[in-house]
């Protein structure tokens, strides 16, 4: 069974073939910032052995906001939160 074998996609090696598709978690805050709850959610997915995590959809303009606590990249002020999120997942 190849499910637990690494796979290379272009120049990136993924440790196994278990993929978490992007699904709305509604765990951001009301301004679209990455919350501590978001960090914990994705941290547990990564610790559980998921090889590739695709985070949820995000909006870059309020017209595209789908839910109250949807994550956002509507300003550069949001970058540190996403940096913390990616660092947590990679760790």
Written description of the protein model:
By secondary structure, this protein is α+β, with helices and mostly antiparallel strands. 26% of the residues lie in helices and 11% in strands. It has 2 helices and 4 strands, in the order E-E-E-H-E-H. The longest helix has 12 residues. The model has no long low-confidence stretch (mean pLDDT 94).
Mean pLDDT: 94
What's the structural domain tally? 1
| Portion in beta strands | 5-15%
Report the strand count. 4
Q: Helix share of residues? A: 25-40%
- What is the CA-atom radius of gyration, in angstroms? 14 Å
Gross morphology: elongated
Number of helices: 2
Q: Which residues sit in consecutive blocks of at least 5 with pLDDT less than 50?
A: none
Class derived from helix and strand content:
alpha+beta
Key features of this structure:
91 residues; alpha+beta; two-stranded parallel ribbon; 2 helices; 4 strands
Strand-helix topology:
Elements: E1 7-9, E2 12-14, E3 19-20, H1 36-47, E4 52-53, H2 79-90
Parallel strand pairs: 3-4
Antiparallel strand pairs: 1-2
Helix pairs in contact: 1-2
Summarize the structure.
The protein has 91 residues and is α+β, with helices and mostly antiparallel strands. Helix content is 26%, strand content 11%.
């Amino acid at each position: 069974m190849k499910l637990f074998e690494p796979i290379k996609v272009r120049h990136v090696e993924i440790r196994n073939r278990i993929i978490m598709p992007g699904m709305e978690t509604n765990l951001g805050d009301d301004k679209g910032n990455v919350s501590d709850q978001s960090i914990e959610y994705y941290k547990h997915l990564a610790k559980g052995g998921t090889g590739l995590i695709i985070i949820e959809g995000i909006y870059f303009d309020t017209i595209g906001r789908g839910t109250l606590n949807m994550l956002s990249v509507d300003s550069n002020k949001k970058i540190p939160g996403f940096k913390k999120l990616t660092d947590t997942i990679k760790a």
